[in-house]
């Protein structure tokens, strides 16, 4: 096997803590060529560009991208209204249309949100109508975009031995846009029903409640961009918070792996951020590289570390970022010599 080429982008804030720790874990598991590249708000302040062209090139040429987190200034802080977060640029430029966001607690909870990653309200077609003093945003739901994400979700269900796909929408109000998304879903579900995959659909508002009251009712959820963004943070709340939630952004050519969380300015620089979300994202990366055994070592090690209560403060512990990583590495080493 060729040595996988991994583009590493720390970004801002705790990205600078959790990504180097994750690279340390990866170095235990195999040979990788790491190519470090810059992006983020600090990068913007330094060089005037949140994501230099060079970074995009490196990302495109790599087998995978390991991404930390970036800070996005509020529009009231930075008057440049067209500022685009580098993660959005990467998703768009590399056409990473499927965002896989699993929620599991190694016990009784295990579902996956499949988030459409390129359109919806994220097309960033916003403008201000001066005359009428109205701000307007376009929300684009295409038949092409809906079909490929819905197909991705059903195929994911088949390949990962899942039983059901739920479409999450607001077609009762957004009758044209989410109406199209739901229509595509219902049409495609007929084919997958024959393969043993069940399907149903729920409104986004009710889903927000069900996720808290009865998350076990879900298996795979497929939804539009912004709904998926919001639901995945809510889902993280079920398993101890954002420090525990990994994700994969998948396109036909590239894969980008990142924690669901942001740069956490409230705790950045203290060395107490939870590295698990990023380490589990690396496990998703290893699965993508067909290094399934190594991915499993990571997940087992995380499970053990959590069970033994080797935890950072967000989970009620008092360990530092590097100490949790040490425990994970210890467990990986002991699994590897068995
Ligand atoms: P956040 O995810 O950074 O933090 C939310 C809360 O979760 C904070 O209390 C934080 O301390 C906690 N938290 C997050 N990750 C943690 C970890 N690994 N360990 C322990 N605690 C953790 O969200 P926010 O505060 O709303 O946003 C901060 C900045 O990050 C904003 O500029 C936002 O735009 C950006 N952001 C970036 C990404 C990304 O790069 N993909 C994702 C979300 C938010
Ligand atoms: C996420 C983040 C991003 C998003 C931001 C930072 C642009 O919140 O990955 O969930 O909205 O997709
Ligand atoms: Mn988000």
Beta-strand residue fraction: 15-25%
The main pleated sheet reads as: 10 strands, mixed
How many angstroms separate the termini?
23 Å
Radius of gyration: 20 Å
CATH architecture term of the largest domain = 3-Layer(aba) Sandwich
Number of strands: 12
Mean pLDDT: 97
Number of domains: 2
Each distinct ligand: nicotinamide-adenine-dinucleotide, 3-isopropylmalic acid, manganese (II) ion
Tell me the name of the CATH homologous superfamily of the largest domain. Isopropylmalate Dehydrogenase
Low-confidence segments, ≥5 residues, pLDDT <50?
none
GO molecular function: 3-isopropylmalate dehydrogenase activity; isocitrate dehydrogenase (NAD+) activity; magnesium ion binding; NAD binding
Family: Belongs to the isocitrate and isopropylmalate dehydrogenases family.
Pfam families: Iso_dh (PF00180)
Cofactor: Mg(2+)
